[in-house]
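Hi Y.,

Following your request, here is the sequence exactly as I used it, all 410 residues.
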Amino acid sequence: MTSFYLSKPYQPPQAPAKLPLGKPWALFGGISPDQFMTQYWHKKPLMIRGAIPAFPLSAQQGEPLDSPIPANKLLEFALNEEVESRLVKAKPWSFDQGPFSKQSIPSLDKTNWTLLLQGMEAHHPAAAKILSWFRFIPDARLDDLMISIAGIGGGVGPHFDSYDVFLIQMSGRRQWQISEQKDLSLNPKLPLKILQHFKPEKEWILEPGDMLYLPPHVAHDGIALDPGCQTWSVGFRSPSFKELLQEGLWRLAESLEDNPELEQKFADPKQKATHSAEQLPEELIQQLSSKLKALKLDQINSFLPGITSYLSEPKPQAIFEPPKKPLNPKQFQQRINSGKLSPHPQTRILSLNSQVYCNGEDMTNKQSSSITRAWQALSGSKYLTKTKLQDLDKSSLYEAYLSGWLTFED
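Below is the corresponding structure, written out as tokens. Let me know if you'd prefer a different format.
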């Protein structure tokens, strides 16, 4: 299968800022994102041949394409401590976490191994561009792009995910078997989360450019058929209500520290003599109830800022480095007029109406209107250019740049 190593690398395009949601896309086999979300999202699997048409078209012309990231470059990422990596071997099953040494990674001609590289959108522009294709799904749901590279027979065993996933074949072939079985019990004797009883119902062999979408809890098993087989997985976050409410409540409690009214002491001049001294006083309950209503703590809108803040937090392993030669505010403004300011690949930005949260912080709080509009543009388009800014030197925008959260594209 040497043709995979002599092929030209595929160059994924950046998706436009405004996606054509009602028009047919090759990515979904000729249906629109609107139709995909209505008919398939979170409902049933979808197998798409030639989801990336450049692959089959180039193959027909005798110039096959390979993955945007060559195998040797991909293996180098596993040596980097800033990249979350895992190595899975079969026959027998074993599991190790990186970073790895060169000697510990099997060569491409070896069999029954898979290297998994998480969050690759933060480490290679091609992965970030692939993610841009899926921005018709809310950013709050998007997790990251994982790349697996494997030798023949490599895989992670039959398993299921608790989230939606798009599996894009980028190099070599992979056999996929899926099942919508109800029995999702795991084998307790293995170091991986492998199903104890997997009964395949459908089977495909994916060629480069093909894509398989799976909703949550669909059992699946992928086995590499060629050396250097690459599958790019776009995964989505699926936090529990417990997690969301706990995080929202914690941040809500923090916000109450700035409320001077709550510094007042409880007083009960209307308290009467009682025979039930052991009971929590009704007067205390009534006053607390009235405070909750006044603060609107009994309404969802009070929780949403904290939840948005939580969902905008970067991954724990994210590392941000300040610019080596930071621009002063005047130079910063000039650079915006002539260049493009973008979020760092590991930065997360989410909006709640007019508020914008970046890496867990409300960046529009007490900011000028021009800075607020700039953050809204960054949240919506993921870049900022040719924008006149006021009060820049003390702004959250300039501070985010100094922290390495925002960077200028070369």
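Residues 1-5 have pLDDT under 50 and may be disordered.

Thanks again,
Q.
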